[in-house]
Amino acid sequence: MCGIVGYYGPRAPKDVILDGLKRLEYRGYDSAGVAILHDGEFKRVRASGKLSELAKKLEGEPFGGRLGIGHTRWATHGVPSERNAHPHKVEGVSLVHNGIIENYQEIREELRSSGAEFTSDTDSELVAHLLAREVRGTNDLFAAVQGVIPKLKGAYSILAVWEKQPEVLVAFKNGPPLVLGVGDGEIVVASDVQAIVSYTNKIVYLEDFEIALVQGASYGVYSDKGEPLRKPVHTLNWNADAVEKAGFRHFMLKEIYEQPRAVAQAIAPHVDLDRMTVRLAGVGMDVPYDRLEAVDALKDSENTAERLSLVERVFVIACGTSFYAGQVAKYLIESLAKVPVETDIASEFRYREPVIPPRSLVVVISQSGETADTLAALRLAKRAGAMTLSICNVRRSSIDREAQGHLYMNSGAEIGVASTKAFVSTLALVNLFSLFLARARGGITADQERRHLEALLATPAQMEAVLSYDKWFAEAAERLKGYRGVLYMARGVNFPIAMEGALKLKELAYMHAEGYAAGEMKHGPLALIDERMLIVMVAPTDQHYEKTLSNLEEARARGGHIISLGTGDNQELKRLSRYYLSLPKAEWTVNPILAVIPLQLLAYHVADNLGHDVDQPRNLAKSVTVE
Ligand code: F6R
To answer: Which residue lies with its CA nearest to atom 13 of ligand 1?
Structure first.
């Protein structure tokens, strides 16, 4: 989704803004632009396509001023084109916008009837018109932003500058994230800290309905009513190096290789190695939560374990890849902790009027912590009085800030649009969470906990071994890309991995792929199978193995070409499959972490071989801040 960067300071705003937008490229975009102060006016340069197009246009452009704003656009209203690119400029007011103005038609009609003429098809331009009209009366940009806010419906974050106040930048957040980086004599405002970390690690997170007023190198944050707010300044421990490719061809490949470390980092804070027990350190469920009045027993509990032991139902809510991690959680929690679990896609959950009984725990999973539907689902769960727990990668993101309890993926910055390391970190966390819940409810013995924990602690090393398939897929990609489609199949806890494998191939290679529960094959998908269809069967040696094997026989009998993933040197699978990939022997609980790696590599290499942009697949965005 769109990326926003604004800068005031002694460096060339053009360079800081372009660099920031580059670091936000992962969010997905189709055009870009800047408006930078020069000789008393904000000079606007925009380009359709990649940032390199904008950079070309900016070459040699002199900009004398210290203030500027920039934007990468991900089209919602109006096709991707230069005329629809931001900043939008109306009578000296320049504006960039992230989000959607829902009462767009109404505002457009109103502006048109009062004589406005439009130069784009966007909802964003309308906000620039409203601001230009307002500032005529207020003669002050901050007051004009305050005046326009009540007229807008939807989720929208904006940065605005005005030629008559050439040292002033106003930022407003309602929905899509905005953060302020406070440097020495300079301020950067952006959609994500990644655009800021090269300049400062001092960060102020704006909340919804807060306005930041940057005046030269100083800033203040205010409510939309104009009351000054005291906002904490957080010190980040990330650095700019963490967001470089480090010699890999793509961020995605680098992130696939970082997965063993990501899993180790996710596990580390939560394991007591002396006692071999899970401790869920700092999860925060024991902190009183003001919406728990309906759940008195939970409110009275002293600590996280006690609270969780009272949970009678778990909901796991997320989107996309995070949703598949949630489905793995269902298998683990129900099997280990014996608590019923419902999983739901956030965009469905938030609108299906879910029944959330007392003593429910709602777990929301989101790498970015900004996914609009997941955030809305979390808010719904809180209104219903549920306990809430977030699993996020980005600390202090909206979802992290609003949930009661927190688990962190600790994967480090994930830049590739297709999620990889955050997914495996989440699988590690849901392993730990299931064990913790099981222990809290007396569902497993200390010995069982130890066995599962040992298996989890062994996974980073086992993952390293599975990464060696990188070379195999690089070589096989040429052959694999020729198939008409790919059916991924598995049973039990690996079924969500089949769906994740299919999603990866769809989004990266733009090939048709489906993930199926292997037992469902004869209820329809078997009809698809012939020699042009590739079957990827995830069949580790677990309690479902024999049944999965029968499904494999059925697929083979219909002429399907099979890649199977099994445990160790499995002769049966070798006989039945065109290609056999061996996974290390592991507990069923951690098999998904190992099995997903070859599926990620398959999608990566086929997509790369087809010449696709692996890090930024078409039409997709990393942080989906609109519904
Ligand atoms: C697919 C992918 C997406 C995200 C989804 C949710 O590879 O990355 O499906 O998983 O958009 O994003 P988060 O986890 O940020 O809420």
So the answer is: 366
